[in-house]
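subagent[fold] <- orchestrator: predict structure for attached chain, return tokens only, no commentary.
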Amino acid sequence: MGRNVINGGRVCWLSLGVKQEQMEQEKPTAKRYSVAEYMALEVRSDVRHEFFEGEVFAMAGASIRHNLLIGNCFLALRTGLRGSKCRVFTESVQLAVERGRYYNYPDVAVTCTPADLAAERTIESPVLLIEVLSKSTANRDRSWKFNQYKQLPTLRHYLLVSQTTCLVEWYRREESGVWSFTPLTLFTD
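subagent[fold] -> orchestrator:
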């Protein structure tokens, strides 16, 4: 037999004198990493991690559909960019969204900057970024991540590709600096 009690804001289960917390457990303090520690981790790790202000987050694996959409975007862009000074990269190339503060791995990136093209693993000046949406990342990709990406002065296009419907959300920076939005809903768009 047992009963619920509230103890200091925590809901606990008392059973035969054993206290078991059910809700609002205190989270342990996460280790904070320097950028150098993070970069060393990325070189050693089989799992990619996102870095934001000293915190490191493992990135989840992708579905087959997610992977196919990334491949389709890569192939179309690579074909279209043939002969230009620009290159397309997929999710294994790191982006320094803000050096020393935020690093991640966009699904697809295009850059035309010589320094990026000569870089070993991290680019800084993309002109186009693509994220393939999933249920767990869609809201973050549309809001928080897009707000971070907007700070990149070279970024001109941000595309969000749906896995569940024929929809590409195309954001582009106009000459005025204002971001416009165009939903692409047909295969001919």
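orchestrator: received. Logging for downstream: The CA atoms of residues 53 and 101 lie 5 Å apart. The two ends are 64 Å apart (CA to CA).
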